[in-house]
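=== RUN LOG ===
request id: a7f3
mode: sequence -> structure
chains: 1
length: 292
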Amino acid sequence: MKNQVSCFCVFILCVLSRKVLAKVDHFYKNCSVPETCGDGQTITFPFYIRGKQPSFCGYPGFEISCNSNGNPVLNLHNIDYIIHEISYNNQFVWVSNAAVSEANKANASCINLSSHRIQNVSLPEDRFALLSNQSELVLLYNCNSSLPGELIRYRDGICENENKTAGTVLALVRNDPNLENASRACSGDRVVAPVDVYAGNGAFSNIGEVIKRGFLLNWTASNCSVCEESGGRCGFNASTYLFKCFCTDRPRAQQCDLANGRITKVAIAIVATAIGILIFLAFCFREKIFIE
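=== RESULT ===
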């Protein structure tokens, strides 16, 4: 008899739980738990991790992959950038060139630019833009090995490979007064890359460290705060190409129905109460059997 009561309680609990869970929309369930690549950073709207989160949990153009080190990686025009930090409140992301970081992580004193791993940064302007306080670093390749004294300092922090396939490389900020003279001393490629933390006097304390540190980007996507404050999870409908607020009952345009959210909470409370009652009755029934 005691086993029959236990089985009956389990059956009732399963039925009640399924009825409550059945009310939760599958879009909401899929996007309700943030993911990570392994480095501890929470990845949520507008970003989403390929293979871990459905694309409808993020915004178009904000797909992230995970590298072998557990870092989130953002691809912009076929160039991978490691994401070091995402500020969801301020809508900026701190990134650095993945190839440069991987190739030079063993050597903290300088950076090897001779392999042309850095390319001109081309941003999808409808989604990302440089923060206003970023600087632009001009990289000049195949420069003369015998440089004038005032240009030698622009090699500080740059390693050169043994073959010197790109010749001597110089790095100057765009508004440096020596840029024109340096350009005349270099016959190779000219690459412009954004960087953070500008010293303000036309020189960097360590060019290698500044390049490896990366730069900051603002992003443009639908505002998620209203949806989240209403208890929803932000997402996107690729068919209509519109932002969606995924709620427990169904997707909505901007925010969830607070009244429906309260109904869901009440349903959960009812299930919890029912569980308590069933446990109590089972206990009483068992005690009655023992007494008899």
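=== NOTES ===
The chain has a mean pLDDT of 78.
Residues 151 and 178 are 8 Å apart (CA to CA).
=== END ===
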